[in-house]
């Protein structure tokens, strides 16, 4: 039987991806234009179509059996081809191929949101009686998931503050090990919303010393800086997690997530995703393919803008402190040391501590004219919010105080507008306080 217009009856296979020209390895920004996609399989379309189908036709009954052997885990390697859109699809597979490129990861998975990526990860590795070691602070929904929801099923946790020394990290790991099996080490760096950094290399050394190289996986939420300004897999993390809603999507018009990393760890996460159905939908995956083409351009422009804005805010009399990573470049502190070892850029999201409290923070936010008062980050537009009263409202007051999430904190994500216009907006908003 001829298929896809091929008279010899064999299905057409994708052309090999071009990853290098001679000895010159192609950069991620170049590979985002076509990696993982062969136009000849889609009627010559330059861009991948959106594959809006719930199921895929098997070549034969034997092929169907082989597919499900992979999907159910009876055969290593996962699905062999396309089966059902809860498991995989062309748009999602192309997206995952391209996501893996940025961190030179062995494999990647896409999810319906950043939190569904995190939830699927936790459900994969944790069981009743286990312990999670994590850095703090975490995104509030992540803290809720670990502390309140998994806690109902007998999973415990211990944390260490972002910026802790190797000895302090090791001590928390030892304390957790004494309470039960440590299933996962979960990091967030920079921390949301304080921008505090975690020493991933120190975490890896402490993990290896206490548990060995085959110890609990180290996973890190890399949303704030990745993949352009930080690549944690190169510093000892096993898995890198993204809210693709942020910089990867970058236009504030979609919600998605991803996990990239070692294939041996991605495989069981894929099995969990297949079961609970947390995969990204085809349309969202297609939109992300569009956005990845301009990822480097958008992040670079936003980063340049943030440097100019933060330099202005740094000296303003109504500003108490600016938690901008770029100021760590020459800082002799431990945070400066982590920044120089781990980061290739300062990002465009920072913490602004105003002199005063909630009244001053609200007055500043209400006076903004260009920047939008909204949660999220990493979009083309500048956003500002009050974490203590918004995204982290559910965090107990004592914990917020311990983690530096105070009433005078404003989180700002700089977009790609003109930097001078943004400075003018922040200047007039500060004058309104």
Explain this structure.
The chain is built from 14 helices and 14 strands. It is globular and about 70 Å long. It has helices spanning 28-31, 61-71, 90-102, 114-125, 140-149, 166-179, 200-211, 263-276, 282-292, 295-314, 334-342, 358-367, 397-403, 419-431; strands at residues 20-21, 24-25, 107-111, 131-136, 156-161, 182-188, 218-221, 239-243, 257-261, 319-323, 349-354, 372-373, 383-385, 409-413. 47% of the residues are buried. It is an alpha/beta fold. It has a seven-stranded mixed sheet, with helices on both faces. Residues 1-11 have low confidence and may be disordered. α3 (90-102) packs parallel to α9.
Write the topology of this structure.
Blueprint: E1 20-21, E2 24-25, H1 28-31, H2 61-71, H3 90-102, E3 107-111, H4 114-125, E4 131-136, H5 140-149, E5 156-161, H6 166-179, E6 182-188, H7 200-211, E7 218-221, E8 239-243, E9 257-261, H8 263-276, H9 282-292, H10 295-314, E10 319-323, H11 334-342, E11 349-354, H12 358-367, E12 372-373, E13 383-385, H13 397-403, E14 409-413, H14 419-431
Parallel strand pairs: 4-5, 4-6, 6-7, 7-8, 12-13
Antiparallel strand pairs: 1-2, 3-9, 8-9, 10-11, 11-14, 13-14
Helix pairs in contact: 3-9, 4-5, 4-8, 6-7, 10-14, 12-14
